[in-house]
């Protein structure tokens, strides 16, 4: 790790103080601006307290501790304090209303441009993240906006269809299974308007599902409303969906790779379909809040998350991929399912990487109307 | 004959002048509470609904506008959902009152010595978490839950075609009824227990049968309790969102879910969410005033 995080401890060791004094003295001797060392000292004093992390369920002290274990070991006085975000919109509401004041949070790749443009976040300094060089270059690029690294890729996976092979017999490997009349009452959709409108877009062969025209959106909305009666529920909580799936209430779910892993672990006969329309891929992106008082600590935290050790733990325990290309799961099944050997697994022509949706607000407004209809 | 409580004819005590000084101070705290935690938040929500307040991320020019109200009142989606929720809540409230009344009647008027023990048993479910009670129903009503398992074992249903109980509107009504039954029984119990028994004796002396006495004396005098009980369940269920989100599925989606979704799970649309919330508040307030006006005990008159 770089010197950055070392400079962030509230209580400095004697060695640290000597180093700083030497640095300050050296700077003065070399005739550099005397304020530089002072500024560093000032930053040190300010960068204290617990690191505020806004993250998804399961990534805090409720199961994901291993991801930040290296950070906690190094900075025991600045342990992360987690707040849960239900989704990016929820995070947006919480941040803008100052319900929480996180130092960093983790939206998915489709929101990088939105947040970068919003002025709520600032770019990372990759030089302060020693594991940055091991991160998948395609994912790293997806985290950039105007050449600056606003998002540091972390976990990744697909959004696709999980189904029971003993109960469901798809006519084709296609998103159409989510709208199959034969399985009325046994289907669950995911409560994400952009995803659902894009799924319909891909199914209808729309050229750019992430930027559909009014007519295309209208047709997709009518289609979703016409098929809603087939759907048992629209899940927002992964745990609830897993319970429903495991108990046999639903047989077909729009789900994540981890759910496939969980259901397989329960002994269910399941398959995670990669549809002919190609699955939607997502990448979790750490983003750094503007004016965070814990700039270096946030970098140290992300560095811990980006390590090969953390990556392997995530893959083994959560069934998601990790942006660290050196991380490999113990299971060869998972390696194949996630195509971990292919660094381009999340991009064309293998998958549609989730991306900025210029009309996101409209997509979600229409989705609300689908649910309320 | 006008039926009034004997207490109404009693001479009123003169209030000591010192009480005038203590009253404002006694009322001060609850009033301040009401203003700070009820009226001010409503004002803030109202300001969001007309775009006087807005989230910093909301694009476009801002300023006073009734556009969100116009969209809501001229669109069918949310008004339709509201009406669906009203119907569901009315059914739940009416059915629960019908179930609770005999229960409360027995406890209050049967003269059993164990009535308070029975009352305690009635409210015993409150000793456990609301969420747990709802989730227990999720298990019971599941496709492979105890009810369906019984149907499979008796051959009434095949495992390939279970009875769909969970994720339905019926499940929402059932669970809401179960949750609110004790709340409904309590005010009815209180109103029945405070009933002046001499009125029933008088009715009997004047030749009224038990049913007639119930219909003309007991029921009218317990009407305020019934009304309060009805409102106790109708108001919260109309804006309910936890139970529908856990056991309602797509068909049990209610107006309360739409409000939550506007504020939280969708793109933050606080303007639209505020409109939905204020509309609900307005309708509930109006209904409360109307019901309260027409169900005063003084208006219970028999021939």
Keywords:
heterodimer, A: 373 residues, alpha/beta, D-Maltodextrin-Binding Protein, domain 2, 3 domains, 12-stranded mixed β-sheet, two-stranded antiparallel ribbon, 14 strands, globular, B: 303 residues, mainly alpha, MetI-like fold, 12 helices, 69% helix, disordered N terminus, disordered C terminus
Explain what the structure shows.
- The complex is a heterodimer of chains A (373) and B (303).
- Chain A is of the alpha/beta class.
- Chain A has 3 domains: 1-48, no CATH class; 51-154 and 282-337, 3-Layer(aba) Sandwich (D-Maltodextrin-Binding Protein, domain 2); 157-280 and 350-372, Periplasmic binding protein-like II (D-Maltodextrin-Binding Protein, domain 2, 3-Layer(aba) Sandwich).
- Helices cover 39% and strands 17% of the residues of chain A.
- Chain A has helices at 3-6, 14-29, 35-46, 69-74, 88-96, 112-118, 137-142, 193-204, 214-227, 238-246, 257-265, 295-305, 308-318, 332-337, 360-372; strands spanning 51-55, 80-84, 104-105, 121-122, 144-145, 148-149, 152-164, 187-190, 231-235, 252-255, 270-273, 280-289, 321-322, 352-353.
- In chain A, strands 1, 2, 3, 4, 7, 8, 9, 10, 11, 12, 13 and 14 form a 12-stranded mixed β-sheet that branches.
- In chain A, helix 4 (69-74) links the parallel strand 1 and strand 2 (80-84).
- In chain A, helix 8 (193-204) packs across helix 9 (214-227), helix 8 packs across helix 15 (360-372) and helix 9 (214-227) packs parallel to helix 15.
- Chain A starts with a helix and ends with a helix.
- Chain B is mainly α and 303 residues long.
- Chain B has a single domain (75-299), classed as MetI-like (MetI-like fold, Orthogonal Bundle).
- Chain B contains 12 helices and no strands.
- Chain B has helices spanning 17-49, 67-74, 77-109, 115-122, 130-141, 146-153, 169-193, 197-205, 210-238, 242-248, 255-265, 270-294.
- In chain B, helix 7 (169-193) packs across helix 9.
- Chain B is globular.
- The relative contact order of chain B is 0.13.
- The interface between A and B is large, with 35 and 37 residues.
């Amino acid at each position: 790790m770089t010197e950055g995080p070392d400079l962030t401890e509230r209580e400095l060791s004697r060695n640290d103080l000597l180093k700083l004094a030497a640095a300050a003295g050296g700077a003065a001797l070399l005739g550099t601006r005397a304020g530089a060392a002072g500024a560093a000292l000032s930053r040190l004093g300010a960068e204290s307290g617990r690191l505020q992390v806004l993250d998804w369920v399961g990534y805090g002290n409720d199961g994901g501790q291993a991801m930040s274990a290296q950070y906690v070991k190094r900075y025991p006085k600045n342990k992360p304090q987690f707040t849960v975000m239900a989704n990016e919109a929820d995070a947006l509401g919480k941040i803008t209303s100052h319900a929480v004041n996180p130092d960093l949070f983790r939206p998915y790749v489709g929101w990088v441009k939105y947040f970068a443009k919003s002025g709520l976040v600032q770019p990372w300094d990759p030089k302060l993240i020693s594991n940055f060089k091991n991160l998948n270059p395609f994912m790293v690029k997806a985290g950039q906006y105007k050449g600056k690294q606003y998002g540091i890729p972390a976990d990744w996976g697909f959004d696709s269809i999980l189904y029971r092979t003993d109960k469901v017999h798809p006519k084709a490997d296609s998103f159409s299974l989510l709208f199959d009349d034969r399985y009325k009452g046994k289907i669950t959709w995911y409560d994400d308007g952009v995803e659902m409108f894009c799924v319909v877009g891909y199914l209808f062969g729309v050229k750019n599902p992430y930027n559909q025209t009014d007519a295309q959106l209208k047709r997709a909305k009518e289609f979703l409303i016409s098929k809603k009666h087939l759907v048992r529920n629209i899940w927002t909580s992964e745990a609830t969906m897993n319970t429903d799936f495991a108990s046999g209430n639903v047989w077909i779910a729009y789900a994540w790779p981890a759910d496939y892993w969980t259901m397989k672990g329960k002994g269910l006969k399941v398959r995670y379909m990669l549809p002919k329309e190609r699955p939607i891929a997502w990448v979790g992106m750490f983003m750094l809040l503007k004016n965070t008082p814990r700039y270096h600590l946030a970098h140290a935290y992300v560095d811990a998350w980006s390590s090969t050790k953390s990556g392997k733990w995530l893959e083994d325990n959560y069934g998601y991929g990790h942006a660290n290309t050196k991380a490999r799961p113990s299971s060869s099944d998972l390696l194949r399912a996630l195509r971990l050997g292919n660094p381009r697994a999340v991009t064309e022509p293998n998958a549609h990487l989730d991306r900025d949706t210029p009309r996101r607000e409209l997509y979600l407004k229409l989705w609300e109307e689908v649910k309320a209809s | 004959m006008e039926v009034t409580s004997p207490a109404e004819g009693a001479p009123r005590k003169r209030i000591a002048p010192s009480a005038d000084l203590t009253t404002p101070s006694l009322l001060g705290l609850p009033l301040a509470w009401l203003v700070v935690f009820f009226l001010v938040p409503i004002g803030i929500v109202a300001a969001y609904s007309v775009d006087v307040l807005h989230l910093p991320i909301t694009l476009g020019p801002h300023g006073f506008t009734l556009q969100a109200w116009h969209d809501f009142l001229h669109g069918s989606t949310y008004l339709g959902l509201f009406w669906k929720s009203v119907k569901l809540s009315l059914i739940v409230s009416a059915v629960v009152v019908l179930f609770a009344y005999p229960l409360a009647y027995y406890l209050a008027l049967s003269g059993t010595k164990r009535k308070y023990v029975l009352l305690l048993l009635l409210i015993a479910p409150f000793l456990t978490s609301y969420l747990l009670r709802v989730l227990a129903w999720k298990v019971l009503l599941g496709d492979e839950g105890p009810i369906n398992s019984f149907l499979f074992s008796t051959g009434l249903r095949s495992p390939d075609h279970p009875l769909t109980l969970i994720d339905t509107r019926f499940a929402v009504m059932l669970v809401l009824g179960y949750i609110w039954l004790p709340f409904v029984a309590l005010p009815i119990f209180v109103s029945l227990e405070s009933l002046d028994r001499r009125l029933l004796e008088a009715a009997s002396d004047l030749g009224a049968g038990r049913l007639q006495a119930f219909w003309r004396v007991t029921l009218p005098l317990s009407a305020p309790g019934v009304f309060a009980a009805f409102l106790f369940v109708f108001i919260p269920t109309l804006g309910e969102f936890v139970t529908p989100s856990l056991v309602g599925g797509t068909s049990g989606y209610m107006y309360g879910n739409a409000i939550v979704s506007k504020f939280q799970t969708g793109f933050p649309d606080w303007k639209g969410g505020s409109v939905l919330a204020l509309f609900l508040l307005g309708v509930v307030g109006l209904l409360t005033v109307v019901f309260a006006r027409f169900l005063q005990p003084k208006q219970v008159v028999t021939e």
